[in-house]
Specification:
CATH architecture of the largest domain in chain A: Orthogonal Bundle
Low-confidence stretches of chain A: none
CATH topology of the largest domain in chain A: Tetracycline Repressor, domain 2
Strand order of the largest sheet of chain A: 1-2-3
Oligomer: homodimer
Number of domains of chain A: 3
Largest interface: A-B, 130 and 129 residues
Distance between the termini of chain A: 72 Å
Largest sheet of chain A: 3 strands, mixed
Radius of gyration of chain A: 29 Å
Mean pLDDT of chain A: 88
């Protein structure tokens, strides 16, 4: 299946290259909006704009809501406010709000103005919650029922409605004041006796406050295996619902973000313009350059030592590099533990201790191998002992730093995935060069 | 809510530390199985075993199916085959099979033998598919209906059943030979006229072949925003269904794996024993040590040059490090693009070209900064020119390597996230040291 899909997409891209636009247009009809979103993301700038022009107006809104933020911004630039209003009007409120949030303030207003009153109100209320909270994720189109009616009444009510919002697996049970009581699954309506009341068969699952951060929402969905949940205001009144498809996007997005942040990519679009990519990555490279200069400065303090014993220059990168690699392993464990909410006051101590032990163990093994090789290579036992000591020290400190840095950054409110790596490498470089060259200066020079 | 949950968990852990077991047991009753799974994952070995002893037998199966593979293996070691059979018997087949797959072959057999015949057959058939395919993810408990019956008949049938498997949002429509035709949502049963036929309201969504890899399943669910899908054998016959909660786990797991693989952690449990962690990470450290030795050997070729100009030893780590960092950024872009299936034959070329341009741009900026600093620091214009050239060359090659290495590894069937980083760093170190020291030997020495 995947094989077939790939070739479908490849054929479409070939037709696009051949500028056979009629055929591209007719092929696009068989693609799901999110497949088109994937295609757009995988195309360089010019072809992307071209393909976007060929997408059917009817599904432009769905495609926009599926595409990555960075890519979406580019597509929106090609559109008039009136067009944006047009293509977003049939979307779920959360998806529409999500798209509008990427526009400049002035454009948002003109988009809202070209909508009819009802749509404007829906979207404006969704825009009042930050994008990465339960309120920003929720859809306000819900079917709610009262606890005291019978399942039979519910069934007749649904038949009258004629349709329910997409991804409805449950109805939301509220009291007279629209206060949330629980969920009634559609299966519950079907399998139970028609004369039973809604209250008898609803599940009293907790609702989600509108200001819960998106990551918290994702954790609740994952832990409880939910398909949907009610979103509530401060008085437990029903505001809307979140469905699992939106949560899947949050989970995917967060995981991506960790990977991108650890490499200092920031938000990225694989085919952002060369200038945009250069600029986004430059900050990280600039910081890294500063730490590289710091390491060079440390080495510079030992110029005279190196002059007398060039073997030190040859071996010193090994000490620094191995510290960096071992420290990064610990760092990754701690960053993921924090992201998954698995590190608390209680287990931070044991975690640091464990990582310290692992660092010492691996440090001892690596240091011994390097010491033996160094002794044989340069026929200098003193050099072997010095590098052995320096590596043990650096790998132990690397393990300690790898565990402590993310915890400290988290406390300071800084994303450990962004800053952790640079701080760690700075430490392992400085400590590595300083202990190795320092010990050599003390003990090896005549 | 999240705040409250955290403190609930913290209180429970405190009680556990105080060995107040009765209270721990009664507190556990208010925890969802997957919250208990999270707690177990966050505990070091001894406390983890202790807490596991206190978990109610009734929910042990659910907890086991929610816990990470590496942690689960440890918990299973504490249990007898008979106990395992007991706690898995009420689970979905996919979850039960998942747990059994972690046991040694001989233990699996004895667990299967202590089950009743019906369960044994269900589980054995689930075990016949690899864990990471659609067949391994599917649950064989499904409600299927025929296309030619009326919705009214379906409703009566469901009421007779009295319950449907968890997470049922749709019924699966099959023909007389159990061949898959489409899905009928429960909402569809409720909102349409009772006399309409199933066939009129089913959606003809494609089913998923049982041998589809888990990542392919995840992509289909994400792209189509599915809640559930039918799994089919080679003849389009219905085998079971996959629900979105299992897919969420796959997505989460895959993203985790990339992060862990890029750091060379392999499968890891935050509180694996010190020895296990040491062993798991040693392989990666060993390979990294080899590449560090290779870099040292390259530097060693230029011993005489460094002796004459120690400034080279001071500056050379900058050339190598900046190449490594810039290359890692490109590498991450390419690895994620491949993981998301967004890199194909058509766009690999443009991607490499774009990354090359970004590398050249950033290389030019960084090289100029470093060249100016080096010239001023050592009052040596020649040195400035040499390091400028070496950095441009290394960053360009780093960008090229960062884009090409993952594509090549993918072609060879090797996970780019595992091997990509080491190969890249080896290249940027070797090229960095070689060009910088080589150019210096050619042009700077008297």
């Amino acid at each position: 299946m995947t094989m077939n899909e790939l070739s479908r997409q490849e054929i479409l891209l070939q037709r696009l290259e051949e500028e056979n636009f009629d055929q591209v247009r007719s092929m696009l009809a068989s693609f799901h909006p999110s497949e088109i979103a994937d295609l757009l993301e995988s195309l360089p700038g010019k072809s992307r704009r071209l393909l976007w022009e060929l997408v059917d107006r009817e599904i432009e809104g769905d495609v926009l809501s599926d595409v990555q933020d960075a890519v979406r911004a580019g597509l929106l630039e090609q559109m008039q406010p009136r067009e944006v209003a047009e293509v977003t009007k049939d979307l779920d409120t959360d998806d529409a709000a999500d798209i509008l949030q990427d526009l400049p303030e002035a454009v948002i207003d003109s988009v809202l103005l070209s909508m009819d009153a009802q749509n404007r109100e829906r979207i404006a209320s969704a825009l009042s919650y930050p994008e990465d909270t339960a309120g920003g994720l929720m859809d306000i189109d819900v079917v709610s029922v009262r606890a005291d009616v019978s399942l039979d009444v519910v069934a007749r009510y649904l038949r009258q409605l004629g349709q329910v919002p997409e991804h409805t697996d449950s109805l939301i049970v509220v009291d007279r004041e629209n206060r949330y009581l629980g969920l009634l699954s559609l299966a519950g309506v079907l399998v139970n006796k028609p004369e039973d009341s809604v209250g008898e068969h609803m599940s009293k699952r907790a609702g989600i406050p509108a200001d819960t951060p998106a990551t918290g929402v994702a954790r609740i969905f994952e832990q409880r295996d939910l398909l949907s949940a009610a979103v509530l205001d401060g008085d437990d009144k029903l505001l809307g619902r979140i469905t699992v498809d939106d949560v899947v996007d949050v989970i995917q997005e967060k995981a991506e973000q960790t990977v991108r942040n650890m490499a200092g990519l920031g938000e990225d679009d694989m085919f952002a313009s060369v200038l945009t990519s250069t600029r986004r990555r430059a900050a990280w490279l600039g910081v890294s350059l500063l730490t590289a200069f710091l390491a060079a400065w440390v080495i510079g303090r030992f110029e005279a030592t190196i002059q007398q014993l060039v073997a030190l220059a040859i071996l010193m990168p090994i000490v620094a590099a191995m510290g960096g690699i071992a420290g990064s392993q610990t760092l990754t464990v701690a960053i993921r533990g924090l992201a998954l909410g698995q590190i608390s006051r209680q287990n931070a101590g044991p975690l640091i201790l464990k990582e310290l032990r692992v660092g010492l163990f691996n440090g001892a093994i690596l240091a011994t191998v390097v010491a033996v090789v160094a002794t044989l290579w340069f026929d200098d036992q003193g050099l072997g002992i010095i590098i052995w000591l320096a590596m043990i020290i650096n790998l132990t400190i690397a393990a300690l730093a790898g565990a402590v840095i993310p915890l400290a950054l988290k406390k300071l409110g800084v994303d450990p995935a962004i800053a952790g790596g640079v701080i760690l490498i700075t430490m392992t470089d400085v400590v590595g060069f300083m202990t190795f060259l320092g010990l050599a200066t003390l003990f090896l020079l005549p």
